[in-house]
Amino acid sequence: MTFNDGDFVRIDYTAKRLSDSAVVYTTDEKAAKDAGIYNKDSRYAPQLVIVGKESVIKGVEKELRKMNVNDSKKIEVAPDEAFGERRDDLVTVMHLSDFRKRDINPEPGLQVDLDGVVAIVKSVNGGRVVVDANHPLAGEKLVYDVKVVEKVESEEKKVAALAEAYGLKPDSVSVSSGAAKISFGDKVEKNADYFVNKSAFVRAAFQYLPNIEKITVDEGYVKQK
Q1: Is the same domain home to 38 and 147?
Q2: Does the pTM exceed 0.90?
Q3: Which structural domain range is residue 169 located in?
Q4: What is the tens place of the pLDDT at every residue in 204-225?
Q5: 72 plus 98 within the same structural domain
Q6: Beta partners for 128?
Q7: Can you give the CATH number for the domain in which 9 is found?
């Protein structure tokens, strides 16, 4: 069995820089803690990959297509199939006043959004701020240790997996005649992130699940005492 465009696959992986073997990404909580990159706000669990939809870097997807459920593989990925080569034109010098207008106090290492372009502040000196819009791993060769955990088969499981990929945990999912019904009970916190993620999930479901024509979301609320 190999994987084809549109397949829903869950993988576990740990990615390291080839140059120094430093862990840069992982789905394993213990590996993240051991590497000193643990983030309490991150979800450590197998990642959903929708084959052919750029949900994982090219070099990994190319090898993933050749794998089967329960297969493990070490994959070395060149920059052109990972996060690209470094580009000098993405390193620019800005005036400190440009940041003051945005109410930003630039410091080395700070990630900033400059009119839709995400960049890292590299240095601040004499009213000049050097920013780098290259991906932090641009130009790096990477090594991925990948294990295929599961191929998600049923429409119900695909809907649930996609919801979880957007940080949502449905209480129940049912699909019948092209209509999906998802329930989020009163134990799910209905904060601003929930509504943003729910909207993104619905768009993704229509995009990646061609058999789904209608989505109904059932939400539960409890009056606060």
Answers
A1: yes
A2: no
A3: 154-225
A4: 999 999 999 999 999 988 887 7
A5: no
A6: 95, 125
A7: 3.10.50.40
